[in-house]
Design a protein that fits this description.
The protein is an alpha+beta fold. It folds into 2 domains: about 110 residues, no CATH class; about 180 residues, Rossmann fold (3-Layer(aba) Sandwich), CATH 3.40.50. About 25% of the residues lie in helices and about 30% in strands. The protein contains 8 helices and 18 strands. Strands 7, 8, 9, 10, 11, 12, 15, 16, 17 and 18 form a 10-stranded mixed beta sheet that branches. α6 packs antiparallel against α7. The longest helix is centred in the N-terminal third of the chain and has 21 residues. The protein is globular and about 55 Å long.
Amino acid sequence: MEGVASRFSAFETAEGTPDAIVEILADSEPAASLARPAGRSRRLFEEEHELDYYPDSGTLRLVDIGIAALCDTPSASVRILVKDDDARAVHLASHLFFSLCLAELLRSRGRYPVHAACVSLDGRAVLFAGPSGAGKSTLSLACARSGWSFLGDDVVLVIADEPREPIVRAFPDEIDLTQESLRFFPDLGSLSLAGPAWEKRHVPPNHIAWLRLASEARPAALVFPERGPVARLSPLSSDAALIELVPNVVRTDTRVAQRHLDTLGALARAVPAFRLEIDDPFAAPGLLAPLLEGRAGAR
C-alpha cells in the first residue's frame, strides 16, 4: 500500500529473513471475511473502534467500517483487509490500524513505543510526550531547524536493559503537519489543507533537506508541552511523569504490559521531567539546551 511505503521511506533497509509479515489486502466485506479468534475477548481502550484482545491466542482484532485487522503476536503476522474504494478506510489501514498492530509486535520484542517526539543534541535526547495536538511535531521540527538531530515526531521506541539506562530508538515515520504547524514551516508545503478532518500534510523526514536523522540517543529529559503565553519550564516529579506516560501501555498480554510499564518507570526515574509552557516553538531550543548539559551521551 502506497501510504505505508511512504510512511517508512526514511527507515533503514534490512536484509535477511523478516521478523514479521504484514499483509494489506482489498476485500469487499472486511469484517465478515476476517474470522474472530477462538475464546473470550477483552475490549481495549479505543471506544471508537472494535479493538479486542484474545488472551488464549495472543491475538488482537480491530474492526471499523470498511476495514478489519488481525494481529497474531505469536506468529508475528498481521492481516489487514480494507475496502480500497473507501478513502477513510484506506487511511485507517495505513495509519491507525497498521500502527496499533506494529506496536503490539514491537512490544512483544522488548521495543516499547512512547507517544512522543524526540530530538537530540550530541547524543542526548529530549522527548516531547503528550497527546495529539500538544505541539510535539512543531517543537521537534523547531529544534531540528536549529541543528538538533531528529528521531521522530510522534512515536519513538524505548528500551531498558538492566543495568544500563534506557535508550531511545528512532521511529522516523512521516511527519504529520496541521495547517497551524505549517505556518511555522511554509517551505514544507501548502498552507491550505482542504479535506476531511483527519487529513494532514504527511512529509517523509528524508524529504526535508535541513533535517538530520539520528538512529538512537540516551534520554536526558522528558518534556510535556502545553500552550502558554510565555516560555516556561516547570519541574515534574518522576511519579507525575510516569502518570503522564501510563496511557502508552495497552492492556493486551499482561506480562508484556507490565514490562512496558516497567520500562516507562525506568525512563521516568532516569531523567528529569518538566512541564513546558510555550507559544513560539523557536524559543524551545534555547530553553531546552541547558537541560542537556552534563548528561553524558556515551554508553
